[in-house]
Design a protein that fits this description.
Largest sheet: 8 strands, parallel
Shape: globular
Distance between the termini: 32 Å
Strand order of the largest sheet: 7-6-5-4-3-2-1-8
Bound molecules: pyridoxal-5'-phosphate
Radius of gyration: 17 Å
């Protein structure tokens, strides 16, 4: 039987090979294990196999898992990677270490206000709408710097970089175009904010091209935990699942 340990090792191997091909150091690429919809037991399996960073998409599910695991595994780093409605921002501010999906000033302000004083600043990435389709989340290129300036002015937040979900496409040219545009925007933002260090892009199906174009954090779900079954759980995925 293939275990989580095997799958994690295989994911690391893919990262290593992609990094090598891109003449990059694989230590510069972090693996975020996306555990959305997956049970606690599998998170613990991955933890025992050495994984420390986990990504969740749904506020309530994430909060439940963090509450159950934080005493036993205080060194897990929890990343919120789903769309966030402002009425749920407090839960993210109080429970997570990172959020990858900031796309408007109001959410940044709320998260800063709601971040408890006894916690480290919340690490944030600005989500970019790289395909510029209206139906997708994220900001357009010209909105990045104004939003970054606001985030940087809030001491309860630490600006770490950019996040994107490129189009799911078989068109290699389109994919490369989006990824290189994203890389360019990341470099540009870095000229204003030299401390940013995170380009969050690449999933199970596109981690190799993402690494070729400078990803520093790949978000891998299916390749580690297997396919997700949305029908089998009772979370409300309608407004929060990946779009
Ligand atoms: C679900 C999800 C992932 C993981 O996708 P896989 O294809 O299962 O690797 C990564 N990023 C985001 C934002 C997601 O919602």
């Amino acid at each position: 039987m293939i275990t989580i340990t095997d799958r994690l090792a295989a994911a690391h191997k893919r990262i290593d090979i992609a990094a090598q091909k891109a003449s990059r150091n694989s230590n510069d690429i972090r693996l975020l294990a996306v555990s959305k919809t997956k049970p606690i037991d599998l998170i613990i399996d991955a933890y025992r196999a050495g994984q420390r960073e986990f990504g969740e998409n749904y506020v309530q599910e994430g909060q439940d898992k963090i509450t159950q695991l934080k005493r036993q595994f205080p060194d897990i780093i929890w990343h919120f990677i789903g769309p966030l409605q402002s009425n749920k921002s407090k839960i993210v501010a109080e429970n997570f270490d990172w959020i990858h999906t900031i796309d408007r000033e109001k959410i940044a302000q709320r998260l800063a206000q709601q971040r408890p004083d006894n916690l480290q600043p919340l690490n944030v990435c600005i989500q970019i709408n790289i395909s510029e389709e209206k139906s997708k989340s994220g900001v357009f290129a010209d909105e990045i710097l104004p939003l970054a300036n606001i985030i940087a002015s809030l001491p309860q937040l630490t600006l770490r970089g950019l996040m994107a979900i490129p189009s799911a496409t078989d068109d290699i040219n389109k994919q490369a175009q989006e990824l290189s545009q994203l890389q360019r925007l990341f470099t540009q933002l870095g000229s204003h904010y030299p401390n940013i260090d995170t380009l969050s892009v690449g999933m199970s199906n596109d981690l190799e091209p993402a690494i070729k174009f400078g990803s520093t954090m790949v978000r891998i779900g299916t390749a580690i935990f297997g396919a997700r079954d949305y029908s089998a759980n009772n979370i409300d995925i309608n407004d929060e699942r990946i779009r």
